[in-house]
Amino acid sequence: MKGLQRLGCFIDTLKADVYPEIPSEPHLSITRQMIERLLAKQGVEPGQQVLDIGCGQGLALRHFLAAGLKPVGIALGEDVLICQQQGLDVRSMDQSFLEFDDNSFDIIWCRHALEHSIFPYFTLAEFKRVLRSGGRLYIEVPAPDTSCHHETNPNHYSVLGKSMWRSLFVRAGFAVEEEIDIDFTVPAGPDQYWSFFLSLPA
Fold first, then answer.
1. Smallest Cα–Cα separation from 86: which of 98, 77, 73?
2. Position 21 in a domain
3. Is 167:120 a contact under the CB 8 Å cutoff?
4. Residue 58 carries which DSSP code?
5. Which has fewest Cβ within 10 Å: 35, 59, 166, 189?
6. CA 72 – CA 49 distance, rounded (Å)
7. Quick check: is 177 in a domain?
8. What is the pLDDT of residue 45?
């Protein structure tokens, strides 16, 4: 129990690292493009249940609603209230300790959230638990060592290499169906995100 208490205390110290982020480019364009790609996948249909991990201020949630899906978002900090005030179904919840029943969702959308986990392998096990057999998982993370140095962001704890991410996905029980390198330039210089379309084998 002492170990769990120490873990809880450590997690509590990280709450100060959480901050709201207003949607902006390139996130607006990338989100739209990747959701369109996801919706074109076989088996993705209106009416399915979607969990948006780290939903921010509701950008992806609004896209999913417009497509006829049934999304629920989770976030921490000010973004929860901002989304709720817009009428979006968003809960205050840590991605590593999901308060949902097993097999609750057809799709999990996790864009720029997994790098905020202090133990991503455990977090992925939670994703698997709440995802239905045959379901889909979208994950997007920043690459390390670009001009933006995402690994130095105060609330980025797991900015891993691509092969490590791929290994963790497979170990957690997911199949990697598609990988995309997203390249763009910001004032600091070249930057890159990695996009993974995964599935949970039936």
1. 73
2. no
3. no
4. S
5. 189
6. 8
7. yes
8. 96
* 88: CATH: 3.40.50.150
Exposure on the CB side of residue 149, measured as CA atoms within 13 A: 4
Is residue 14 classed exposed, middle or buried when 0-12, 13-18 and 19+ CB atoms within 10 A define those classes? middle
Evaluate whether residue 15 is within a structural domain: no
Classify residue 117: in a domain, yes or no: yes
The total of other beta-carbon atoms located within 10 Å of residue 96's CB is 18
Decide if pLDDT at 4 tops 80. Answer: yes
Rounded distance between C-alpha atoms, residue 74 and residue 55, angstroms:
6
pLDDT digits (tens, 9 = 90+) for 27-58: 999 999 999 999 999 999 999 999 999 999 99
Domain span including residue 132: 26-199
Average pLDDT over residues 165-175: 98
**Domains identified in the chain, total number:** 1
**Antiparallel, parallel or unpaired: β 175-186 and 189-199:** antiparallel
